[in-house]
Amino acid sequence: MPKLLIVLFIFFANLSFSTAQGNLLNLDSTLSYNTSILEKTKQLVESDTSTARQQLNKLILNISEFNDSIFQNLADQKLHFFYNYFSVSELIKEVNGVLEIAKQRKDTSSIAYYYDALAEIYLNETNFDKALQNTMSSLELYEAMQNLDRKGELLLKKGAIEYATGDYLKSVETIFDAANQFKETGSKYHLAFSYLQIGITYFFIEHYKESVYNYKLAQREFLGFNDSLGSAICQTNIGLVYLEQKKYDTANILFYDALPEIIKSDRKITIGQLYHNLGVSYSGLNQIDSALYYLRKGLQIDTDINYEIGKAAGLLELAKVKFKLNEVDSSIWYGKQCLFIMDTIPDIEIESEASLFIANRLYERNEFEKSAHYFHRHLLFQDSLRIEDKKINEIARDEGNKLDRFKDELRISKQREQLIAKEIKNQKQLIVGLIVFGALLIGSLFLASIINQRNKKLNSKLVENQKVIESDLQVKKSLLKEIHHRVKNNLQVISSMLSIQNQYVTDPRLNEIIEESRARINSMALIHESLYKRDTDDITSFSTYVQNLIPQLIHTYQVDENKIHLRMDVDDVKLSIDESIPCGLLINEVITNAIKHAFPNDRKGEIKIEMSEHDAKITLKISDNGIGLSEEIQPDNQDSFGFLLIYTLAEQLEAKMKVYNENGLSFTFQWKHKNYQMLS
């Protein structure tokens, strides 16, 4: 299969002209006049194209007061109507007219733009000579203006034209130049084109595995910026690699998947190529009816747009299919029709393969003289012709010295081909290495730049968020301190009120109850006081609270420290707020009970507080060596307020409580540490 239809490039954007009016209505009378003409044309063009054309001819474009932007805006609106509603010849005439006005205005940007528009029209019409001529004119101007993005796009177009005219090597070189332009400008397409060109290079030196790999990388990049057409063309190129490897099933599936997007692009040459390739894949699968259907569809499109090289390639493939059907006469006819086209638009590869195909068919029919003629034609255009030695010997016996000369020419051409191929292979390998290195380097720098910018933004945002959080935290800390302070003050006010009230109570039992309540309130107030007085975020152990609580109880109950000694063995235990208050009340209640009841009649003794933490469990033990409980009193069955309060506080801590009535009275509480905010 000739490589004419093997590689698809992403050529150019479809031709279109802007219809935006901008702020034309707000300019002077000439602009208002032009705007009214365009409005009338819009109303007439669907129903009366002749009158619409007359209206468009009334437009005034060559006004020196118009700046370049206004001129191009008006011209684009005029050309929009010709592009959509009039013939191609009329469109070309109008574009040339606008181009002349741009030259008179010395508007370099518009001149380059309309040269490009003409190239696009001629390319769509497969008039490759004029397409290339206008492309080069536009390219020179954009290069002079140092507009590298547009230069890259025009190089792509130039490569497409060279490819369509059969100059494949020059086309690939031009496409590489375009990719380099995109790399210099940081265009979003640069990675995709780099990978695509590497895939093309690998394909031409028949490194198919590497070719498919790079096509897939290019496809991923195109999908990354939602270029579905670029992705479809990459997929088609992958299918063409499998077609070269005779993996017809895989190639056929890939072609079909890409077909809807290619058809949607309305690019006739590309659609014709894809139909052609589907036909070849079906031929390889021996599904002859389908092969004929798609080859004829591709041939029809190429005929409609006068794409002669595409027509020649299609006729050659039809010749091969007809041969599979044993329709030898028809097969030779299609081959000769292919060569007839090559007489006007030569393509070495197609002409060589068609000549070889016809020569083989004539040889099989024993028409040796005609066969030799086509073999000779083949050798004139293709040094790499390969004919089996047995067939060469048979032809030599029949044709004598004439075919001996052909054989010598073939041997010499093969030797020359091997030398040239070796040199080309070395050069291509060097080019591939440089391209791969360049593409990877550019890709790495590009990704590194993106990552660096992203990290800077994230770091800036994190610093900003951290400042906000720290500010909020400081406000919340201040508010929390204020809350604890106010709670402590309120509790002290309540305690003071109870103290004043107690002065007017004459009942001793009621006096006692009020004092006990005051002690409990003071115990809670002490906890809140420790919370708001902290100067830092460091956590203060619960032992500090106990050391402050004990003197307060001694003062409240007027304990004679010479008779009752309070001893503390409290480890550096840290409690949460939810644990601190019930624990503090427990200590207050048990010690108060011991002070009041354990040492009657001025009996001396000791009250001991022990607190420790082990394996996330806290143990609190409060004991005295006083008289203990009488034998008839069972702690578990006691319903006094003091015992009920102790049980309630133990439940709140989810603590296990044990009471020992030996050598005095001992309370032991054990609970699992809670990981809430710690008391400081």
Keywords:
680 residues, mainly alpha, Serine Threonine Protein Phosphatase 5, Tetratricopeptide repeat, Heat Shock Protein 90, five-stranded mixed sheet, 71% helix, disordered N terminus
Would you kindly provide a written description of the structure presented here, covering whatever features stand out?
- The chain is mainly alpha-helical and 680 residues long.
- Among the domains are: 167 residues, Serine Threonine Protein Phosphatase 5, Tetratricopeptide repeat (Alpha Horseshoe), CATH 1.25.40; 128 residues, Histidine kinase-like ATPase, C-terminal domain (Heat Shock Protein 90), CATH 3.30.565.
- Helix content is 71%, strand content 6%.
- Helix 23 links the parallel strand 1 and strand 2.
- The relative contact order is 0.04.
- The N terminus and C terminus are likely disordered.
